[in-house]
Write a sequence for this structure.
């Protein structure tokens, strides 16, 4: 969902691109270079790109869109953080419950062992004399 928002913002900003001159030059090594200043003596002009400047209204619209997207993302992040905290709390409760169950089971086993080792007379072993 976040990626979709970023793509949407990119497309809107792409449509609202600024108006400026960009010069396309070919260097002496044959490399194509785009720059805001005219080509130097060592470079050959390949073309000049005209880029439309954004109007004040378009700038304000883009800023408002960006602000609303940032607020939406902040709310989304807060919701995710809250859900993660709830998951962590639930995990901690589950671990405490498992620990308590193991403690109870160990206590029951200890009690069962104690009952098994004690004879009817209360002694843990039979006396040698009988």
């Amino acid at each position: 969902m976040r990626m979709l928002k970023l793509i949407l913002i990119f497309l809107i900003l792409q449509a609202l691109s600024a108006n400026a001159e960009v010069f396309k030059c070919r260097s002496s090594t044959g490399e194509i270079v785009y720059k805001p200043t005219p080509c130097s003596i060592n470079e050959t002009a390949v073309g000049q790109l005209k880029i439309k400047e954004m109007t004040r209204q378009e700038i304000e619209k883009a800023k408002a869109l960006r602000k609303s997207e940032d607020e939406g993302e902040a709310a989304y992040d807060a919701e995710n953080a809250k859900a993660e905290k709830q998951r962590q709390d639930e995990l901690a409760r589950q671990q405490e419950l498992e620990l308590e169950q193991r403690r109870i089971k160990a206590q029951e086993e200890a009690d069962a062992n104690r009952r098994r080792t004690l004879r009817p007379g209360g002694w843990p072993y039979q006396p040698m004399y009988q």
Summary: The mean pLDDT is 82.
